[in-house]
Amino acid sequence: xxxxxxxxxxxxxxxxxxxxxxxxxxxxxxxxxxxxxxxxxxxxxxxxxxxxxxxxxxxxxxxxxxxxxxxxxxxxxxxxxxxxxxxxxxxxxxxxxxxxxxxxxxxxxxxxxxxxxxxxxxxxxxxxxxxxxxxxxxxxxxxxxxxxxxxxxxxxxxxxxxxxxxxxxxxxxxxxxxxxxxxxxxxxxxxxx
Length: 193
What we know:
Its EC number is 2.4.2.22. Keywords: Cytoplasm, Glycosyltransferase, Purine salvage, Transferase. Residues 41-157 form the Phosphoribosyltransferase domain. Pathway: Purine metabolism; XMP biosynthesis via salvage pathway; XMP from xanthine: step 1/1. It comes from Bifidobacterium angulatum DSM 20098 = JCM 7096. The protein is an alpha/beta fold. It has a single domain, classed as Rossmann fold. It has five helices and ten strands; from the N terminus they run H-E-E-H-E-H-E-E-E-E-H-E-H-E-E. A six-stranded mixed beta sheet has the order 4-3-7-8-9-10, sandwiched between helices. A two-stranded antiparallel sheet has the order 1-2. Strands 5-6 form a two-stranded antiparallel sheet. The radius of gyration is 16 Å and the shape is globular.
């Protein structure tokens, strides 16, 4: 998606340790119009596929998934929580995932009332690096008896291999911008097309 690549080029910041900061428009301050165009792009890519629900993980995926859902007939958005709370009652699907940006492991929890057998689920997230978060969400879907119809990603760090591994496993991934390389010294970011 040309517009997203241009925003990454103009407003993104490359940090040491393969960190790409895009918090000016994607995961701290949210450009809702951009999210809407991203949702339209995913709707075009996944057109004709049955999607009953969108699943994401808190926190950065929530806004993107909610805006994108409007392009899928207003299907419900469920977000996996990263911490147990008193608001989570009843039976739950639980796994743990390692966060690349936080450099630690988190529990990932979805109430069993909101993820059901036979549902066709679209996973949406802001970043795909090594694929750990997505594997966690895929595991929750598998445990629930739901099938993953596809995966929509805003920014994939192609050089970290998570997307390639998931594609090799047969998942239909639509990453709107795939970063091929980034250099913290120069700030240069190149994209895979």
